[in-house]
């Protein structure tokens, strides 16, 4: 099963009260990569090792997001949901539980990715995004990184950030891509 993807509003609400699932090309066109593995199967371990080797993801750690397992939970969760970008890829593999990664599409609208057990995504450097838990209120994620991890989040607007500019340029000649800060 691939992750389910649909459009949401500014506060994460479903639009027109429904979830119209979108094809995964919606992610591909904005540079988001995705895989589906099975954390319980050894073949998946091999596949994960392969992905890590190919993409140079030498660093790995695990993070559990829920009130009793994450220090400064309230503050962290608030920051995760604030629209931001990073100077590097954000790579997450969902081992247990579930949660929502929202990314901006080419029209600057929110696309919600429902990550569940086995889903793995790579958000490209410079993409605006945010994260929030779903009703299950628990997720265990593997975080990967090339070399020593840097988790610095740059809150929107970051139109002058060279990594942001590079990302925008990579989106097919920028036509129709809203650059305005809000
Ligand atoms: Fe992030």
UniProtKB/TrEMBL annotation:
Any single Gene Ontology cellular-component annotation: nucleus
Protein residues bound to Fe(2+): 84, 86, 90, 129
Catalysis performed (reactions): 1,2-dihydroxy-5-(methylsulfanyl)pent-1-en-3-one + O2 = 3-(methylsulfanyl)propanoate + CO + formate + 2 H(+); 1,2-dihydroxy-5-(methylsulfanyl)pent-1-en-3-one + O2 = 4-methylsulfanyl-2-oxobutanoate + formate + 2 H(+)
Protein's job: Catalyzes 2 different reactions between oxygen and the acireductone 1,2-dihydroxy-3-keto-5-methylthiopentene (DHK-MTPene) depending upon the metal bound in the active site. Fe-containing acireductone dioxygenase (Fe-ARD) produces formate and 2-keto-4-methylthiobutyrate (KMTB), the alpha-ketoacid precursor of methionine in the methionine recycle pathway. Ni-containing acireductone dioxygenase (Ni-ARD) produces methylthiopropionate, carbon monoxide and formate, and does not lie on the methionine recycle pathway.
Chain coiled-coil ranges: none
Gene: gb08072
Top-level division of the source organism's lineage: Eukaryota
Cofactor mode of binding and number, as noted: Binds either 1 Fe or Ni cation per monomer. Iron-binding promotes an acireductone dioxygenase reaction producing 2-keto-4-methylthiobutyrate, while nickel-binding promotes an acireductone dioxygenase reaction producing 3-(methylsulfanyl)propanoate.
Pfam family, one: ARD
EC annotation from Swiss-Prot or TrEMBL: 1.13.11.54, 1.13.11.53
Gene3D superfamilies: Jelly Rolls
Any one Gene Ontology BP term: L-methionine salvage from methylthioadenosine
Gene Ontology molecular functions: acireductone dioxygenase (Ni2+-requiring) activity; acireductone dioxygenase [iron(II)-requiring] activity; iron ion binding; nickel cation binding
Record organism: Eleusine coracana subsp. coracana
Membrane topology reported for the UniProt record: Peripheral membrane protein
Cellular compartment(s): Cell membrane; Cytoplasm; Nucleus
Keywords: Amino-acid biosynthesis, Cytoplasm, Dioxygenase, Iron, Metal-binding, Methionine biosynthesis, Nickel, Nucleus, Oxidoreductase
Name recorded for this polypeptide: Acireductone dioxygenase
Binding-site residues, Ni(2+): 84, 86, 90, 129
Family that this chain belongs to: Belongs to the acireductone dioxygenase (ARD) family.
Co-factor(s): Fe(2+); Ni(2+)
Pathway(s) served: Amino-acid biosynthesis; L-methionine biosynthesis via salvage pathway; L-methionine from S-methyl-5-thio-alpha-D-ribose 1-phosphate: step 5/6
């Amino acid at each position: 099963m691939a992750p389910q993807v649909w459009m949401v509003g500014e506060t994460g609400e479903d639009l027109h009260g429904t979830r119209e699932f979108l094809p995964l090309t919606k992610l591909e066109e904005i540079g988001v990569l995705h895989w589906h593995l099975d954390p319980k199967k050894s073949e998946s371990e091999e596949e994960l090792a392969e992905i890590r080797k190919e993409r140079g993801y030498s660093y790995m750690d695990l993070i559990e997001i829920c009130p009793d397992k994450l220090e400064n939970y309230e503050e962290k969760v608030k920051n995760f949901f604030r629209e931001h970008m990073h100077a590097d890829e954000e790579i997450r593999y969902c081992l247990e539980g579930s949660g929502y990664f929202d990314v901006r599409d080419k029209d600057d609208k929110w696309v919600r990715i429902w990550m569940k057990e086995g889903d793995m995504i790579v958000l490209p450097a410079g993409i605006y995004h945010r994260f929030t838990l779903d009703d299950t209120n628990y997720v265990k994620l593997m975080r990967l990184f090339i070399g020593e991890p840097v988790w610095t989040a740059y809150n929107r607007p970051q139109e002058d950030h060279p990594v942001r500019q590079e990302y925008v340029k990579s989106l097919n000649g920028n036509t129709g891509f809203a650059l305005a800060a809000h």
